[in-house]
Specification:
Layout lengths: L9 E2 L7 E4 L2 E4 L2 E4 L3 H12 L6 H4 L9 E7 L6 H10 L4 E5 L9 H11 L2 E6 L22 H21 L3 E4 L12 H18 L3 E5 L5 H11 L4 E6 L2 H4 L5 H8 L3 E6 L1 E2 L11 E2 L8 H11 L4 E4 L6 H21 L2
Parallel strand pairs: 5-6, 5-14, 6-7, 7-8, 8-9, 9-10, 10-11, 11-14
Antiparallel strand pairs: 1-11, 2-3, 3-4, 12-13
Helix pairs in contact: 3-4, 4-5, 5-6, 6-7, 10-11
Length: 342
């Protein structure tokens, strides 16, 4: 995902009482269980709450397309009103969105956004923010420019994500979302504890406002992301699984990743692509169905995990072909979801 793109996806809302934790006991849909450790609680809570986080009409569906909520992510372009971005959601035939802002986001943006969502009848499931400073989406400059890992931009991006959390809370949006960056694979790397502390600071701020904080996959292996989430000690920190990013960055594939981080997944980007062959650049993004993502296998595993949350179509190109590919992807995914969740 990039700040200059119109993106697609949907994020589930906060829990509504079906998952509760008190002193090592978790109640999951009426069953009370002792927990042996914090990791078990996070996995149980994450898996149990996804269906309760959906709108009633989606969560109530016994199967078919209603089992997964498809939606669109749009960016509020610099200088335009939020209503224009929200109108694009409807023009792409979706009724839900994740909405992104540039680094100049401020609390004054909250009321116009809330009003636009209400007037257009659109549900915003997360607010996306990447923060200020340059970002290079490749293997050479990426580690020093993306996310909360680079020291040069870290504090400014933490502050920006906190402003995004304030706007999300005031607008009634239940989550904030970002790329955390190239989290070091080696936990003994000096940058690793710094990254953990930065993510923890944002997650704690979001939690105080009743929000969840979503980390998008891509720049790190699934086990590294799991380690980082556990090491923050924050129970409102979850995963947005970009189905193509793990492939584009050469970090794995989404089907196997679900064995590692599946219970923490609260949202997805439906996107396709190929593994990188040039060691300087990411792999090639493709239209859905033309890359290496096995969508049918992913959906079968999601159903086995009990996932009934959001999925977002993302196509990082510009112009009319972007809209055409998005609509074709929607048709493809509706059919695939109906088959997997039948």
């Amino acid at each position: 995902m990039r700040r200059d793109r119109v993106l697609l996806y949907k994020q589930e809302q906060t829990e509504r009482g079906q998952t509760r934790a008190t002193r090592g006991i978790v109640s999951v849909k009426g069953r009370t269980m002792p927990l042996t450790n914090r990791r078990q609680f996070i996995q149980l809570a994450g898996a149990a709450s996804v269906s309760s986080a959906l709108p009633a009409e989606a969560a109530a569906a016994p199967g078919g397309a209603g089992a997964i909520q498809l939606g669109v992510v749009v960016w509020v372009r610099k200088g335009e009103p939020a209503a224009d971005a929200v109108a694009r959601v409807r023009s792409l035939t979706f009724s839900a969105c994740q909405i992104g802002y540039g680094p100049d986001i401020r609390i004054e943006d909250a009321e116009p956004l809330k009003q636009a969502l209400r007037e257009h009848g659109v549900q915003a499931t997360a607010l996306l923010e990447l923060g200020p400073g340059p970002m290079e989406w490749n293997f050479y400059q990426g580690p020093s420019t993306i996310g909360l890992v680079p020291p040069a931009t870290r504090q400014a991006r933490i502050a920006c994500l906190k402003r995004a959390a304030d706007v999300a809370q005031a607008s009634g949006i239940p989550a904030i979302h970002t790329h955390c960056g190239f989290i070091p694979e080696n936990p003994n790397d000096p940058l690793y504890p710094q990254a953990v502390a930065a993510v923890k600071e944002v997650a704690s701020y979001a939690k105080e406002r009743g929000l969840i904080f979503l980390c998008e996959t891509g720049q790190e292996t699934p086990i590294t992301l799991l380690r980082m989430i556990q090491d923050t000690g924050q129970d409102n920190l979850f995963v947005n699984l970009d189905l193509a990013n793990l492939i584009l960055y050469g970090k794995g594939n989404p089907t196997d990743a679900l064995d590692v981080i599946g219970p923490l997944v609260r949202g997805m980007h439906a996107k396709d692509g190929k593994f990188p062959t040039n060691p300087r650049n990411l792999g090639e993004e493709t239209p859905i169905g033309q890359g290496e993502v096995n969508f049918h296998a992913v959906l079968r595993k999601l159903r086995a995990l009990g996932y009934r949350g959001p999925m977002t179509i993302e196509r990082e190109i510009e112009g009319p072909k972007q809209s055409a590919d998005i609509l074709a992807s929607k048709t493809f995914l509706e059919k695939a979801i109906a088959e997997a969740y039948a």
